Amino acid sequence: QDNSFEQFIINYCNEKLQQIFIELTLKEEQEEYIREGIEWTHIEYFNNAIICDLIENNQTGILAMLDEECLRPGTVTDDTFLEKLNQVCATHQHFESRMSKCSRFLNDTSLPHSCFRIQHYAGKVMYQVEGFVDKNNDLLYRDLSQAMWKASHSLIKALFPEGNPAKINLKRPPTAGSQFKASVATLMKNLQTKNPNYIRCIKPNDKKAAHIFNDALVCHQIRYLGLLENVRVRRAGYAFRQAYEPCLERYKMLCKQTWPHWRGPARAGVEVLFNELEIPEEEFSFGRSKIFIRNPRTLFKLEDLRKQRLEDLATLIAKIYRGWKYRTRFLLMKKSQIVIASWYRRYA
């Protein structure tokens, strides 16, 4: 119920992860259909980039305002930090406080003067500003680092490399918020180079008990996780897409015209293959560089046919090998019989 600086930066990380989810599953997928020339009606969704900007913007973001308060001379308190937020973020539609212009809760006593509220993608969260400045200034003083570095124990010395006199940096150490922001940026950069798969966990009840399903709780989670928009995109879109070359290479054994080698363009080979298999036209679409399959059962059918074809090919290979093996053995025995008979007739 009482959210402070720790919960604020955790929720900031959640916002960034949600942004990656939106980029990869909603934005990029729809853009890919347009890029590939597939007929597509755009599906609207909420993009939480505006919330991320509220928190991390280098000039007007909450973290930037917090760092500015920590670094400026004079009397700095949590209340002066909140006053600065009220000045800078007053008109932001996702920021609310008792003094902000966007607040719809001026007469709501559940929003104290020492708090601010952010409308995250998952819902509204109220933060107590008490302790924000001190926690953001979570600094280890330079003389303490130097004292720990001079310890005789090798492990303790290794834990405080910044205490090495040869590496003394006279700059002010970065704040906790800026360090966390840099770590989140590194994480996002790493995730964007990968092909992530998402597993969304739904909590069926608040009692952590079996066989209890709270409909309202589950529906709330489905809404704020953005699953409804994702399902709409998936149902209207295509379950599977693959470049023509690997698709033809994987399934070419299912058609006599493409097996064992197809001499023309890969797209033409895929068209011949799908026509030969009599797959309904509404189940797939040809993009500029990829084949799009709408229903998973079409893909399962292709995989089943491929599995059966592999078994048939394995049986054919085994049959040919056994025929070659026994024929070779027979010819060897026949040759040996002729040699033996000729030598026998010579001495008979």
Can you describe what's shown?
Belongs to the TRAFAC class myosin-kinesin ATPase superfamily. Myosin family. Keywords: Actin-binding, ATP-binding, Calmodulin-binding, Motor protein, Myosin, Nucleotide-binding, Repeat. It holds the Pfam family Myosin_head. By secondary structure, the protein is mostly helical. The chain has three domains: 5-138 and 174-193, Methane Monooxygenase Hydroxylase, Chain G, domain 1, CATH 1.20.58.530; 143-169, no CATH class; 243-347, Alpha-Beta Plaits (2-Layer Sandwich), CATH 3.30.70.1590. The chain is 54% helix and 7% strand. The chain has helices at 5-35, 49-56, 62-71, 78-88, 132-136, 142-149, 154-159, 176-192, 215-224, 227-236, 244-251, 266-276, 296-347; strands at residues 95-97, 115-120, 123-128, 240-243, 284-286, 290-293. The mean pLDDT is 84.
List the helices and strands and how they pair.
Elements: H1 5-35, H2 49-56, H3 62-71, H4 78-88, E1 95-97, E2 115-120, E3 123-128, H5 132-136, H6 142-149, H7 154-159, H8 176-192, H9 215-224, H10 227-236, E4 240-243, H11 244-251, H12 266-276, E5 284-286, E6 290-293, H13 296-347
Antiparallel strand pairs: 1-2, 2-3, 4-6, 5-6
Helix pairs in contact: 1-2, 1-8, 3-4, 11-12
Give a short overview.
This protein is mostly helical and 348 residues long. The protein is 54% helix and 7% strand. Strands 1-2-3 form a 3-stranded antiparallel β-sheet, covered by helices on one side. Strands 4-6-5 form a 3-stranded antiparallel β-sheet.
